[in-house]
Amino acid sequence: MEQKFRCDCPITTALDVLGDKWMLVIVKQMLIDGKRTFKDFRESDEAVSSNILSTKLKLLEKVGILFKSKLPNNKKTVLYNLTERGLALTPVVVELAVWSYENMREFNSILRKGDELSLMKSDKAAFAEALVQKYKEEQAKILSQGS
Amino acid sequence: MEQKFRCDCPITTALDVLGDKWMLVIVKQMLIDGKRTFKDFRESDEAVSSNILSTKLKLLEKVGILFKSKLPNNKKTVLYNLTERGLALTPVVVELAVWSYENMREFNSILRKGDELSLMKSDKAAFAEALVQKYKEEQAKILSQGS
DNA sequence: ATTATTACTTTCAATATGGAACCAAAAATA
DNA sequence: TATTTTTGGTTCCATATTGAAAGTAATAAT
């Protein structure tokens, strides 16, 4: 599964890597939903099947969006962590959320109500930055403790 | 090909519709590359094959991202136009471009140089709005003339 | 010592993608 | 007017991707 690029356009290039139903969903699950382990992803609302999850996690690692780690006292559980490159996707994710809240409600009847929409819209960059900060704090907490 | 949604998350919902290799590329071709006709898309750098193009254009129309029109003096050529909903994807496209310029160069050796990157980054909202304005001006020009 | 959990891989069916050829209507050209 | 070309598709078929289910090996908990 080596990557092929269609042309020199940055947008097309991004979509050559991220353009599917799972890549950005996994990033979002890590960034927003606090998912960190294979099991977490499997048990998410979106319920990825494990073969696909495995494939996508490998690709995300390969392009430097996430890296794997382990806790010192546990040899079994693998932690998946966003890199700075992965965290740099936060603005994309935020823009998708804004667009979706404002345009997808008529199609997805179970779309949750957008409580954070006005906050998000009032300062998208600040909202994105707050998400990143929250992620990093959680990350620090997990790495500092041992379990 | 009716739409199914995985859960109530807005990001996942957006990707249920847009999450593939073509949907956002077609939007970008219209918004930035001035593509308007079936032929235009076929002859683009990305060279979509016509069966897929046909399928995706129908889906984009169905979710209200584009609409079809014709010029008064030409019964053959079909024009594909972005709606306000489609134009509202501009910030997503801009964020993808920024991320890509800054993170994909090591993977896509033919990625073009990001001359507009610093301009884009300095004020993303303004950059997006300028793209939308330019599109609308072109649109007005085409609709006003007859050919 | 036994059971459960975690992180996968394998298998196989269903669906999506993609290239190529084909086609009908309209437009351009001779 | 007759012929050719262009445009906007559709159809066919091969290949690739997705996805559900079951299986497995190592570790951890009981």
Helix run count of chain A: 8
Mean pLDDT of chain A: 95
**Strand content range of chain A:** 5-15%
Q: Structural class of the helix and strand makeup of chain A?
A: mainly alpha
What's the number of extended β-strand segments of chain A?
Answer: 2
Please estimate the helix content of chain A: 55-70%
Largest sheet of chain A: 2 strands, antiparallel
CA-CA gap between termini of chain A: 35 Å
Rg measurement of chain A, Å: 16 Å
**Unreliable runs of chain A:** none
Q: What is the secondary structure topology, with strand pairs?
A:
The structure is a homodimer of 147-residue chains.
Chain A (H helix, E strand, L loop, with lengths): L9 H9 L4 H9 L6 H5 L7 H13 L3 E5 L7 E5 L1 H4 L2 H14 L13 H6 L1 H21 L3
Helix pairs in contact in A: 6-8
The structure holds a DNA duplex (30 and 30 nucleotides).
Short description:
The structure is a homodimer of 147-residue chains. Chain A has 147 residues and is mainly alpha-helical.
Describe the protein's architecture and organization.
- The structure is a homodimer of 147-residue chains.
- Chain A has 147 residues and is mainly α.
- The first copy, chain A, is built from eight helices and two strands; from the N terminus they run H-H-H-H-E-E-H-H-H-H.
- The first copy, chain A, has helices at residues 10-18, 23-31, 38-42, 50-62, 84-87, 90-103, 117-122, 124-144; strands at 66-70, 78-82.
- In chain A, strands 1-2 form a two-stranded antiparallel sheet.
- In chain A, a hairpin with a 7-residue loop joins strand 1 (66-70) and strand 2.
- The relative contact order of chain A is 0.12.
- At the A-B interface, helix 1, helix 2 and helix 6 of A face helix 1, helix 2 and helix 6 of B.
- Chain A binds a DNA duplex (30 and 30 nucleotides) through helix 3 and helix 4.
